[in-house]
Amino acid sequence: MGTKQTAYFLRSAVSLMSIAVICLTVKSSFAQPDASRAFGSGIEVRFAVAEWPPLVTESRPDFGTISGRITKIFSAMGLNVRFEFLSWPRAMELTRRGEYVATFPWWQTSQRSVEFHIPAFPVASSRHKGFYKRSRFPDGLEINDFGDVADLGLRPVVVASYWHKQEFEKLGIGVDVVANPESAWRFLNADRADILFEDEEPGWFDLTETLGVDIAKAYATTGIVPTSNLFILFSRQHPDGQKLRKAFDAFMASKEGQDMRDLWSIHPDERQILQDAIVKARDVD
Could you tell me if 121 and 234 lie in one domain? Predict the structure, then answer.
């Protein structure tokens, strides 16, 4: 082969290699990163929480049913977790201010949607029910939503820091407000209110712990009252709040996350379908 031909083929080979490198670079620039792995491995995530046994509690090795789920989810994402126990109002306020990156578990409300980043995927399904004395309502109470409370002429007791107060006020329903769950159960048991709404498992736990097993047997519950599922609230003021929310949604939308959701029977609300989770995980601020 002549010198000119050799030079020509060498130039052609170099050009083809350059094109290949450019193509690979372009392809890489359009590749979607794994948002669920957006944080380095082993980083610690601090959650502000409060006692809500048996779902969140310092008295169990796994810190409660929901806390155990959070540990498994974030461990699968390559992150460590730490739960710092405060009062519920303080847990929410310090997360809102950005001193903590997240808090759980909370029902979704319009106000919380403004103040926090709320993911598409819940961490638990809610089984919210009304608790009442069998002796006062021997025929039971048929309640399908909070509006039925007014129709039946019932007066609920609510805990000051819980979201029920605002919900009943919006419906024009008068309530009695107490400082904490223990006071609420004692108030109800003294026949000073007709009904108390709480998630089923913590409700029975608190009722039994506060008033004893024998008295708890005298109570019944309504059917499930539709509410939001239970979510992590990610801080809008913390520098990692939005990034961590995206990573969480991306993981929960993955096959591994779906397997966990199926195991725990937790799924997005009908309005928050899988596609919404994928879009949220990839959106750009």
Answer: yes
- Give residue for tokens 């990692």: 240
Report how far residue 283's alpha carbon sits from residue 285's, in angstroms, rounded to the nearest whole number. Answer: 7
Which residues on adjacent β-strands are paired with residue 116?
A: 235
d(CA 144, CA 68): 31
Helix (H, G, I), strand (E, B), or coil: what is residue 198? Answer: strand
Q: Which residue has the tokens 């959070």?
A: 70
Q: Is residue 59 part of a domain?
A: yes
Domain end point (choices 221, 239, 264): 221
- With beta carbons less than 8 A apart as the criterion, state whether 125 and 215 touch: no
DSSP string, 138-197: TT----SSTHHHHHTT--BEEETTSTHHHHHHHTT---EEESSHHHHHHHHHTTS-SBEE
Integer Cα distance of 78 and 44 in angstroms: 10
Cβ atoms of 196 and 162 within 8 Å: the answer is: no
Residue 136: give the domain boundaries.
Answer: 128-221
Can you give the pTM of this predicted structure? 0.76
Residue 204 within a domain: yes
* pLDDT tens, per residue, the chain with 285 residues: 554 444 444 344 444 444 343 333 333 333 344 555 555 567 999 999 999 999 999 999 999 999 999 999 999 999 999 999 999 999 999 999 999 999 999 998 889 999 999 999 999 988 899 999 999 999 999 999 999 999 999 999 999 988 888 889 989 999 999 999 999 999 999 999 999 999 999 999 999 999 999 999 999 999 999 887 999 999 999 999 999 999 999 999 999 999 999 999 886 554 344 444 444 444 444
